[in-house]
Structures are given as C-alpha cells and as structure tokens.
C-alpha cells in the first residue's frame, strides 16, 4: 500500500517524514498531560518505598526486595521482582527528587522510543528484507503509538515496568531477525542468541512478562519457515529451525528457574478481593475467565471503558451458562476460530495472533495473579492487535480497487487515529491527580467498592470527612467484608469521638481479617480513649504478636502504660520505639516530657542528645534541650540554642517567648521585654507573651516604687 503514489520523496526526506509523524503523534498524545501528581500505585511503589526514596539504599537491597519494597521472601510479598525498574525510579529520585512530572516525562520518552523502533520490529515480524514505506509495518506502529489502552502504562508512573520490558521485547525480536538469512556464520549465530538472552534477562528484571520474549521469537521463527499446509512435518524436517527452537526453550527454562529461585520457589499469597475470578471454582471459573478474555479484546477494540482498577465486584462472576454474557464468549471464540481457520495458511495473520496471545499468557489465568483486568498488561500484547488491524486494513485497501472506497477506507483510518489521539489525551489527563482518576472510575465500574474506598481515603486526607463517610459507607454496602474500609471508617468515627461506632467497625475489620495488625492497633487506641486499659493492652499485644517491628504500635503501647501510671514501662516501650524507628519524634518528645515532669533535667539532656543524633536541628528537640539547660541554670548555652532557632524560624513567636522567659530568669529584663514585644508583633493575641510582659512590667514598677 502506498499512501500517495504520485508523490516521490528522497530516502532521507522520507525517513524524516515517517519518523517525524510518529514523534508528533506521541507528542500530541502525552506531552501536554505530563504534569500531575503521584497517583494510585505510585504512592506505594515510589513515594513510600524506601528503596526509591532513601539515597543510601544499596544496590543489593533491590535484589532482596519486591517492587513495593517488601522482602521478596516475605509470605505477604506479591513476588514482583523488578529491580531494574526500581533502580530507574531510584536514580531519577536522586537526580531530580521525587518529581512526578519528570517521571511521567521519562515514561513518555520510553513510549516514544518504542514507537520509533516499531517499523523495524514489524518488518522483522513480517520477516521481510524490505517493506513499503507506508505499508502494514508502518501503520501498525502508528496505531500502537496512539492507542488509548497504553495510557495507564505511560501516564501511570509504575507503568515504567511495562515500558522497560517492552523496550527489551522489541529489541530482542529485532536482534533475532538477524537470523533472517538462510545461512549465517557461527559467530553471528552465537552473537544473536547471546544478545537475545541478555535482553530477555534484563526485561525479566524489569517485569516478569519479559519471559515471553523467547517463546514469541520461537513462534515467529516457526511461522516464517514452516509450510502451513504441512506444519508438523516441515517443522521436524527443518533441522536448523528445530535447533533454534530447542535453544530458545532451554533459555526460557533457565530464566524461569532463576526467577523462581530468587523468590525461594514460593508463590504469592493473593486474597479473593484482589481477583475474585482466580478464587472461583468449576464452571464459574471457566466461564468468568473466558469472559475476561472478551473484555480484554473489547478494551483493545473500543478503548472507552477504561478504569484504574477492576477489583472486587467490578465484573460480576459468570456463574451459569444461562448468563447473557456467555453469548459474548461464544462470539469471541467463533470469531477467533474463524479467523484462524480462514487464515490457517496466512503466516502474517498467525504471527499477529502469536504476538498478541503469547505475551498475554502470564495474565491469562494460567497462573494466579492479583488482578482481574489490568490495562497496562495489554501494552505488549497490543503489538499483535495493532499488526492484525493494520494488516486487515491494507489487505482490504489492496483488494478493493475502487477509488471512492479507498478514499473512504483511508478517511476511516485517519478518523480512527484522530479519535485515538483525542481519547489518549483525555485519559492521560485523568491520570494527573487522584481526585480526577478515582472519580473517572465511577463512570466505568460504579459497583467497584475499591473505587469508592479510594475516593473516601482521598477525601479523608483532604479533610473532607462528609465525603469520606459517604463513600466508605457505599464501599461497605457494595462489599461488606472490605476490612480496610471498616478500619478507616472506624478511624473516622474515632476522630469524631464516636467511639462505640469506631469499635464496631474496627472489630468487623478484625473479624474479616484476623491478622490485620493495623486494625488491632487502632482498636487499642479506641479502647485506650475509653479508658478500657485491659482491652487496649490485649489489642496492642495482638498487633505486636504478628508484627515484631511495629514502632507506631510500640509508641501507642507506651502511651497506654503512661496513662496507667507505669512510667517505667512507658519509658522502656518508647525506648524500643525509637530503637525500631530512630526518627519517631513523638516517642522522643514523650520521653522528654516524662523526665521533665519529674524534674530529671540531666536525663532530658541525655535523651535530646540521642534524639538529635538521628534528627539533627529538629526544632522541638532543640527547644526541649534549651528549656532543660535553662532550668539547670546553664543560661548561656540555652541562649545560644534559642538564638539559632529564632534565626532559622523567624515566624515562630514561641521561640521568642521562650527566649524572653530565659532572659527573665537570667534577670536580663531589658532583653526579656524586647523578646516579649517581638513575639507580640508576630502574634498580638499570644496570652503567654502578654502575661509574661505584664508580669515583667509590674515587677519593674514595684521595684521603682
């Protein structure tokens, strides 16, 4: 197919036009929507992941942790071992800080690079030495660049895993195309296989789906070199093809073994709310899983129905053959089987199907995964879809040699591309903030309790408790066993001092998830607020039983001991808190308060020295140290600390007040008066500064009289 046979361009100009168009399309789709925040999974995988944010994290730690920062051998780990992806986040954070726009820009650049590689990639898929400039291979690349299904992978920062894996996938197939010649030297043979193996291994270290690269190469190779009229016989008779297939198979087995060895041959422990289909059984599981195949294809065909999450009851299980959705399953398989039979001797169509189906295998339900549908896992399988659509369009264009029909076809393809660009821009803009993203999910999956939960959680963070209450209740109405929603709703009631309702929801959270450590801790906090000391103690101990390293729970347990009057145990518990988390400011402050109330000022100095070793220049700790020094009569050292605090925090009147009190005790009354007046300039309603100034002036007047 030639876009315009009457126009002849020089090779260099043709190159600029073809690749320039791909650049422009990628630019239009994503460049203007790069700004935004960390959203959804970005928060856990990046913002709260010490492997990314801690500049001192060694490379070795990435080899022991999963994608979310947990120990890979932990039974609760999802076993998502992607150290190269985490490394890319880590290096970006070191160079530019935690900048979501920068990270989204990197994703967009990776998507653009993939788009620029695709004409060559699809040329290898077609197994051609030379392709038409505007043929199937090029239009496949155009469709891929603008397809809206890719917005989650590009606009969602954690989609970096898909993008890096796709780079390795595309490059590996291109390199494998070096065996296109009938005869290659042994050096080139070894070089090609070594490079493909390395690229596959690197891709697997970006995301597990990279393991499908070698099987894809084998399928493309076989479909190129066998006679489709006698596939098995010609395959077995083609000794070089058999040898290549065996090598690819052995390399795949090697990588699978290495990957399983890393996670100690343990499997991830998902819960039914993550993927209800995976936990269903019998006919329900078969029908529901096949219905998901229909939905995945529909998302590729008509990418309007897009959501950030498809968990829980987003897609109700297909429990009976009488369910109307079985009709879609039948249509899907009739279409698929018909396509295969109709094109059983057409290698290009079969290659497109292989390119679409093989990379999808890890998400197909063969192994249990923690999602029902995830749009980003369609990033690589969409390569095959775009190739099939382009191939069908070009074949139809070539067969219908009627001018007006060809014009209609060309206009239709152009219209599809424009619609895809507009939809991609719209969808990528929805990934800018969690408020927009979560609300967009209501249109697509209104029965998804997780969507309502996320809206409620965001509203809580923003202080909109009315919205939070409403959406938590709706989430629980849709999924009554949603333990995290019960816990968060209980926390909201606790903040509102409605402790009885708080208890009820926290107890339900534990009922549905017995080992829910955070819920146990929060239950202890509510019992402590109600002065149910015995019940609070049991709750804290239950939380700590299953989670030994739990500084927040240790801190609250220390508060409980303090309320019970056992200051010795409280201090010991807070000491354990700061041992587990040396930057736990509240625990340091509580220990300081206990010693200060007991007039043990020397102990305050010891504690503040320990704390400042981990939290240097922390103003509260420095102020506590200055107060202790002043009470011990060491006015000069206390003055120095307050002077530094006033310089570093010029808008804080409390440090001026404290300095005034220091001078007052030191009998430097002029300086004290000046400090009190400076504090009142900042905050004229400060009762402490006004009272102290009044006392100072009154004592002066009495002395003068």
Q: What attributes characterize this protein structure?
A:
single chain, 705 residues, mainly alpha, elongated
What does this structure look like?
With 705 residues, this protein is mainly α. 69% of the residues lie in helices and 0% in strands. It contains 35 helices and no strands. Helix 23 packs antiparallel against helix 24, helix 23 runs parallel beside helix 25 (517-529) and helix 33 packs parallel to helix 35.
Radius of gyration, Cα only, in angstroms?
32 Å
Number of strand segments: 0
Helical content class: 55-70%
Largest sheet entry: none
Q: Classify the secondary structure makeup into a structural class.
A: mainly alpha
Mean pLDDT: 91
Tell me the strand percentage band: under 5%
Q: Tell me, briefly, the overall form.
A: elongated
Helical segment count = 35
* Distance from first to last alpha carbon: 108 Å
**Stretches with pLDDT under 50, minimum 5 residues:** none
């Amino acid at each position: 197919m030639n876009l315009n046979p009457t126009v002849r361009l020089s090779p260099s100009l043709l190159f600029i036009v073809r690749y320039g168009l791909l650049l422009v399309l990628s630019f239009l789709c994503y460049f203007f929507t790069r700004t935004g925040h960390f959203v959804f999974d970005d928060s856990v995988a990046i913002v709260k992941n010490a492997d990314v944010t801690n500049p001192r994290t060694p490379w070795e730690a990435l080899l022991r942790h999963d994608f979310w920062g947990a120990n890979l051998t932990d039974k609760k780990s999802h076993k998502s071992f992607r150290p190269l992806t985490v490394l890319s986040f880590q290096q970006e954070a070191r160079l530019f800080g935690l900048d979501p726009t920068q990270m989204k820009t990197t994703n967009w650049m990776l998507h653009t690079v993939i788009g620029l590689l695709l004409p060559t990639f699809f040329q290898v898929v077609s197994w051609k030495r030379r392709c038409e400039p505007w043929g199937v291979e090029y239009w496949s690349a155009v469709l891929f660049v603008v397809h809206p299904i890719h917005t989650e992978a590009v606009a969602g920062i954690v989609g970096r895993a898909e993008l890096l894996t796709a780079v390795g996938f595309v490059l590996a197939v291109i390199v494998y195309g070096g065996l296109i010649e009938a005869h290659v030297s042994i050096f080139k043979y070894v070089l090609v296989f070594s490079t493909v193996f390395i690229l596959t291994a690197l891709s697997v270290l970006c995301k597990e789906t990279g393991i499908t690269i070698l099987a894809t190469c084998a399928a493309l190779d076989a479909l190129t070199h066998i006679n489709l009229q006698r596939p098995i016989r010609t395959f077995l008779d083609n000794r070089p093809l058999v040898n290549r297939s065996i090598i690819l198979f052995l390399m795949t087995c090697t990588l699978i073994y290495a990957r399983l060895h890393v996670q100690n041959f343990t499997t991830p422990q998902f819960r039914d709310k993550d993927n209800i289909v995976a936990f269903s059984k019998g006919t329900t599981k078969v029908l529901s899983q096949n219905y998901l195949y229909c939905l995945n294809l529909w998302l590729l065909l008509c990418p309007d129905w897009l959501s950030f999450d498809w968990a829980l009851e987003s897609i109700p299980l297909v429990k009976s053959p009488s369910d109307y959705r079985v009709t879609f399953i039948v249509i899907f398989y009739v279409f698929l089987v018909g396509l295969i039979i109709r094109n059983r001797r057409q290698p290009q169509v079969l290659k497109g199907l292989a390119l679409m189906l093989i990379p999808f295998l890890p998400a197909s339900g063969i192994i249990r995964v923690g999602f029902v549908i995830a749009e980003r896992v369609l990033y690589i399988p969409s390569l095959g879809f775009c190739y099939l659509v382009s191939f069908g369009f070009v074949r139809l264009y070539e067969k219908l040699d009627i001018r007006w029909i060809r014009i209609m076809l060309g206009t239709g393809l152009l219209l599809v591309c424009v619609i895809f660009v507009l939809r991609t821009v719209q969808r990528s803009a929805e990934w800018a903030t969690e408020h927009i993203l979560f609300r967009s999910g209501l249109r697509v999956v209104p029965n998804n309790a997780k969507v309502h939960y996320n809206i409620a959680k965001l509203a809580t963070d923003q202080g909109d408790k009315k919205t939070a209450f409403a959406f938590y209740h709706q989430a629980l109405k849709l999924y009554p066993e949603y333990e995290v929603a019960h816990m968060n709703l209980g926390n909201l009631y606790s903040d509102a001092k409605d402790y009885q309702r708080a208890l009820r929801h926290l107890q339900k959270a534990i009922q549905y998830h017995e080992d829910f450590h955070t819920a146990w801790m929060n239950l202890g906090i509510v019992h402590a607020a109600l002065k149910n000391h015995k019940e609070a103690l049991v709750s804290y101990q239950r939380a700590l039983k299953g989670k030994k390293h739990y500084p927040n729970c240790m801190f609250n347990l220390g508060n409980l001991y303090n309320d019970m009057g056992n200051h010795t145990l409280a201090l010991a518990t807070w000491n354990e808190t700061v041992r587990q988390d040396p930057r736990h400011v509240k625990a340091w402050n509580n220990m300081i308060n206990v010693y200060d109330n007991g007039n043990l000022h020397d102990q305050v100095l010891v504690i503040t020295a320990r704390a400042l070793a981990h939290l240097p220049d922390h103003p509260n700790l420095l102020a506590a140290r200055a107060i202790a020094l002043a009470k011990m009569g060491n006015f000069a050292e206390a003055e120095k600390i307050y002077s530094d605090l006033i310089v570093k925090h010029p808008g804080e009147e409390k440090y001026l007040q404290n300095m005034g009190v220091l001078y007052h005790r030191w009998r430097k009354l002029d300086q004290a008066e000046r400090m009190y007046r400076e504090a009142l300039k900042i905050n004229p309603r400060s009762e402490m500064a006004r009272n102290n100034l009044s006392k100072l002036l009154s004592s002066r007047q009495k002395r003068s009289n």
